[in-house]
Amino acid sequence: MKETMKPVSHQQASQLLHNKFVVVLGDSVQRAVYKDLVLLLQKDKYLSLRQLRSKGEMSFEQDCLVEGGCLSEMHNGTAYREVRQFQSAHHLVRFYFVTRVYSSYMKSILEDFRHGLKPDVIIMNSCVWDISRYNSKWLDDYKENLHKFFGELKGILPEETLVVWNLTMPLGEGMKGGFLVPEIEHKAPQLCYDVIDGNFYSGTLADAYGMDVLDLHFQFRFSLRHRTKDGVHWNAIAHRRITCLLLQHTAQAWGVHMSCPVATVEHPEVTVQHAAKRNASKSADYYYRPPSSHYHQHEYVMRSRHVSHHYIPYTNPRSSRHGNYY
């Protein structure tokens, strides 16, 4: 009988990301990643269908629309913009909607990082729009843009920033979605295979640039029942699992013990169990201070490259320095 494991709770998520600045970059799937994280930082609830489907709204669960969305023209073009931000006393989470991994707009985002507050965590993905909306012979352009983006990002961010590159989740052959405008509908049957190639190149390059790779394509290959009818997006259960995977990965990278392991819950009405109550740090410092009984040797929890875990099943475990995590 399959063991049922408890998911990450609101309290654990809130404590792990205490006084942290998290940035999420990507398309509509990544927007739902942002939304589920913002929701979990406040309460043990799942996203509603309406929340998953909404885009560009003025406010979502105490966040605010900073730029684009309903503040300007709503459309499915490559120039669509949406910047959202959630801020509480001890959390800052920002989302940028992007349709290409490297562009003039991405340069402006990188300038935000260069001259503004440096993120503690960046969670990002850019693939489906890159390989479908710009060039029919997309591979060379995609590779070049990945090199440019990863190179510039590496030069801007401090060493302790945790960068997680999410590989694109499985697409359905009969997909339909906002990005799939009439002029590219003929590409739909091939895109689910092109994404696999795009994942291979983006994951390989991200790893080469010293970033972490979370292979969501691999993780959800047998969870297609949680994909929505459009063949592109995913339901609330899938997104809570993504959040749990990301938080567990972050905890491992920072050397933080989470008393409750990652789980897949099978119904959105299941009540998420709280971990044992612990006093949250009230320090004004920009780092979370873990309980001294567990981390007496560390004054602060910071990024440590030697404990990073990579989720890339296509890496040969015999030659990989990361070993086999499956």
Describe this structure in words.
- Strands 2-3-4-1-5-6-7 form a 7-stranded mixed β-sheet, sandwiched between helices.
- The chain has helices spanning 10-16, 28-40, 49-53, 104-115, 128-132, 138-156, 188-208, 216-219, 236-254; strands at 20-26, 64-68, 82-87, 91-97, 121-124, 162-166, 212-214.
- Helix 7 links the parallel strand 6 (162-166) and strand 7 (212-214).
- It is 32% helix and 11% strand.
- The longest helix has 21 residues, at 188-208.
- It is globular, with a radius of gyration of 19 Å.
Note the topology.
Elements: H1 10-16, E1 20-26, H2 28-40, H3 49-53, E2 64-68, E3 82-87, E4 91-97, H4 104-115, E5 121-124, H5 128-132, H6 138-156, E6 162-166, H7 188-208, E7 212-214, H8 216-219, H9 236-254
Parallel strand pairs: 1-4, 1-5, 5-6, 6-7
Antiparallel strand pairs: 2-3, 3-4
Helix pairs in contact: 2-9, 4-6, 6-7
Number of strands: 7
Helix content: 25-40%
Biggest sheet features: 7 strands, mixed
- What is the helix tally? 9
Q: Which whole number gives the mean pLDDT? A: 80
Rg (CA only): 19 Å
User: What is the distance, rounded to the nearest whole angstrom, between the alpha carbons of the first and last residues?
Assistant: 20 Å
**Main sheet strand line-up:** 2-3-4-1-5-6-7
Q: What is the helix/strand order? A: HEHHEEEHEHHEHEHH
The structural class is alpha/beta
Low-confidence stretches: 1-5, 261-326
Which characteristics define this entry?
11% strand; disordered N terminus; 326 residues; disordered C terminus; alpha/beta; seven-stranded mixed beta sheet
